[in-house]
Amino acid sequence: MKLKALRHGVAGFALSCFAATVAQADEPKELFFYNWTDYYPVELLAKFEKETGIKVTMDGYDSNETLLAKLQAGGASYDVIVPSHSIMRTLIEQNLLQAIDSPSLPNFAHVKPAFRNPDFDPGRKYSAPYLWGTTGFSYDSARVPGGKLDDSWKEFFEPRPELQGQVAALDTPSSVINAASHYLGVDECTENPQDAKRILELLQKQKPFLKMYSSDNTVDRMASGEVIMMQNWNGSTARATLQKNTIKYVYPREGVAMFQDNFAVPKSAPHPGNARVFIDWMMKPENAAAVSNAIAYANGIDSDALLDKKWKVMDAINMPDEFAERLRPEKECSNQARELQDRIWSRLKG
């Protein structure tokens, strides 16, 4: 009986692989890739196109909220998207994703154990790991009094007089609200209107001191000196530090958000077979490492031996062990909490 079951299992797996191959063979050689802005090296796309013959068109977005809204509206025709773990359950529950069964892809064997069976997608039925990182803030130590800021969100939300007007916040609602929540000591997914009121008041008080809200060109804004301090991702900060070595990254003691981004395939994907080819290709260690070396974020693939040494010596990438207790994995909030966040952001930006 066991042998018979095994034969059926092997036959079923072979049939599914054959079906996927046929589907991919019948599709036009093209792929529409919707990713965070500045979050994939274009030269690697050229390598993928050369090796597979699949032409890639890449478009960018600036927040999970933008991605979710586009998919919910039903007008998106993308093959591969890059949602953070904090919206994965919503995408799955709203039937916005196709099942891709990542463990059945040959290169899933290279996925690190910690990324194989996440709570937000048990068994990796709908996703594959891409990159992970943190959202703290960065500053130019050559342009602040005394050359050093305290490792607290207070420096960002209540900037010193010398820095006011030279500070930027991300234009990403969840990132800004999460940071404010950590600073105030409230749950980032609070459903309490009084907590929301405190968050809004903090952000409204900070707003006159900001030069801008922007999630684009975060590397250049710091490296060029356009701003002195910016809420920022650790990878963007590391890349800016290569251009200007006085830039520092802060892991605030009140808590720093940790995110994990993933590859997924929308329900409406026009080329799902090509999407699986791309996702499998990206789980090859040399390709995962090429992304990490280009944009300075850690990946979920067993590729550490291929990472560039220049990233390993930066605190923004190689976080000091004593800061581990400050990490706060981003949560997936309830609809009620999201409605509160939407109201906070609308009031703030209105």
UniProtKB/TrEMBL annotation:
It is found in: Periplasm. Keywords: Periplasm, Signal, Transport. GO terms for molecular function: polyamine binding. Coiled coil: none annotated. Residues 1-25 form the signal peptide. It comes from the Bacteria. GO terms for biological process: polyamine transport. GO terms for cellular component: periplasmic space. Belongs to the bacterial solute-binding protein PotD/PotF family. Required for the activity of the bacterial periplasmic transport system of putrescine. This is Putrescine-binding periplasmic protein.
